[in-house]
Amino acid sequence: MGYDARVPPSERDPEVSRAFGRAVQIARVRRGLTRSRLAAQAGIPSPSTIGRIERGERDPILSQAVRLALALGLTPGQLMDAMQEERGRV
Questions:
Q1: In tens digits, what is the pLDDT along the chain, a chain of 90 residues?
Q2: Closest CA to 88 of 1, 2, 8, 16
Q3: Which of 36, 39, 59, 89 has the fewest CB within 10 Å, making it most exposed?
């Protein structure tokens, strides 16, 4: 039996998910990237996954979050800082 890294819906924090997603979306738009281009650069299988992350419907696993940050030209810490800023606005 394999390990499932997805967070069960009952354990997710919707506020954090929305703030992270908004930070990704803002950074993506600022860099002029489409969801398709970001997905390709971050090694995420589908642009629809990027959309779900941006809407706060899906939490990426750690390796995906790191790849997203790097594809957005940010360090993981900078992306987390942006999430914290958005969290104050959500």
A1: 333 455 566 677 999 999 999 999 999 999 999 999 999 999 999 999 999 999 999 999 999 999 999 999 999 999 999 999 998 875
A2: 16
A3: 89
